[in-house]
């Protein structure tokens, strides 16, 4: 849907399913930075907004049904229906607030504590997403995640 | 201006000066998550939006002149002047895009590379902010930052 180096020309709204955004680090490892499940929007906003090549990839994690809008169509929508500004204001405000909390957890919690936090707060999400992607989101190896899970069960 | 446990009742716009947002981690160390210089807004959006106690502190880093708006006044402003929705949509969109890139640097760059990136891209910012706060933003000790700087100069 989006690969590094492309301009992100679409903004995606998830009707059913799940998307993820990731990049490939210097070691060649995929690092997931965001997921979008039902009723979330996802794009690379910097690329979408400024029409510059993206530094991210976006792909579906499971069978996914999307609405998609192009940058020009979204501009047109906002121009002809200014009331939609309010809708998108809320969307970005919520996404920004979520990113702030994410930052706090990255710096404030150990990787293991971050996993337990995620598991306690969003159990359905953790159940639903393949474990190797949860590991990629938390920034550790699938092996280390298995270890933590085993430790918790025992 | 804001302490952990308080509800963030104001949204701040920096006319001149600089604010920072931080939290205190389990080891008692201040971790800075965001700065706001001229023409940026800053609050704890989660607390401001949902009127819940904040997990952050906000304070001025230098002598700062601000505009401040309360949550109720901002709601009123948006209600009576819906055109302002567009303005705030851009504000949050920009802040969200910046947070996405920040996340990429946190995961994708070593702490040292992150410092050099910041220094290359925002030299005036790095000059302006006290070094111990740059260290607090990058997530390492002031001593380690001095070391990196010394290494670069030599």
Automatic annotation (TrEMBL), chains A, B:
Listed SUPFAM superfamilies: cAMP-binding domain-like (SSF51206)
Protein name in UniProt: Crp/Fnr family transcriptional regulator
Organism expressing this protein natively: Niabella ginsengisoli
């Amino acid at each position: 849907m989006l690969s590094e180096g492309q301009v992100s020309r679409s903004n995606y709204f998830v009707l059913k399913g799940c998307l993820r955004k990731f990049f490939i680090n210097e070691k060649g490892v995929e690092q997931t930075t965001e997921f979008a499940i039902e009723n979330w929007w996802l794009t690379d906003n910097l690329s979408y907004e400024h029409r510059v090549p993206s530094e991210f990839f976006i792909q579906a994690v499971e069978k996914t049904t999307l609405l998609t809008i192009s940058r020009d169509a979204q501009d047109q929508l906002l121009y002809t229906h200014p009331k939609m500004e309010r809708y998108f204001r809320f969307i970005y405000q919520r996404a920004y607030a979520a990113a702030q909390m994410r930052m706090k957890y990255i710096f404030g919690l150990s990787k293991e504590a971050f996993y337990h936090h995620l598991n306690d707060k969003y159990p359905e999400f953790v159940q639903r997403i393949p474990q190797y992607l949860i590991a990629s989101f938390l920034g550790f190896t699938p092996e280390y995640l298995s270890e933590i899970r085993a430790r918790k069960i025992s």
